[in-house]
């Protein structure tokens, strides 16, 4: 500091010869200029610099608070999402288990209904076979009966007279009527 005051004192020692000159002592002139500039900056810039630093500090604090709030919100949303994920996984497992159970039930139902259908078809087939056998037997009986009747009629026509012939026909018609009632 002594050099600074000495520099100001030395200003008073300059000759006032009216000449203008340069001070070639670089260290003393730079120190004077720097001290004047720093003094002016500190005096006038202290308030501005303080305001700038306070504003910057406030913005940093606001940014930190906003970041913490956003982080808290993000953590909260993450926990909610994890809870929903666990719930969805549990529901998916439940659907999977229920689905497998439902598939097994449907499979058993299908097997049972197919078995019943096959039994019904087998019964229908057996009934159809019995019906067709009975129909074939009845047709054979009718043909045999018709042939026997025609043979008997032929024999009767050749052997009988008209009155005997009519009585035989009536008896045969009566027998046919009773056979028809039996077959129906």
Automatic annotation (TrEMBL):
Keywords: ATP synthesis, CF(0), Chloroplast, Coiled coil, Hydrogen ion transport, Ion transport, Membrane, Plastid, Thylakoid, Transmembrane, Transmembrane helix, Transport. It is a single-pass membrane protein. It is found in: Membrane; Plastid, Chloroplast thylakoid membrane. It comes from the Eukaryota. Pfam families: ATP-synt_B (PF00430). InterPro entries: ATP_synth_b/b'su_bac/chlpt. GO terms for cellular component: chloroplast thylakoid membrane; proton-transporting ATP synthase complex. Belongs to the ATPase B chain family. In plastids the F-type ATPase is also known as CF(1)CF(0). F-type ATPases have 2 components, F(1) - the catalytic core - and F(0) - the membrane proton channel. F(1) has five subunits: alpha(3), beta(3), gamma(1), delta(1), epsilon(1). F(0) has four main subunits: a(1), b(1), b'(1) and c(10-14). The alpha and beta chains form an alternating ring which encloses part of the gamma chain. F(1) is attached to F(0) by a central stalk formed by the gamma and epsilon chains, while a peripheral stalk is formed by the delta, b and b' chains. HAMAP family: ATP_synth_b_bprime. This is ATP synthase subunit b, chloroplastic.
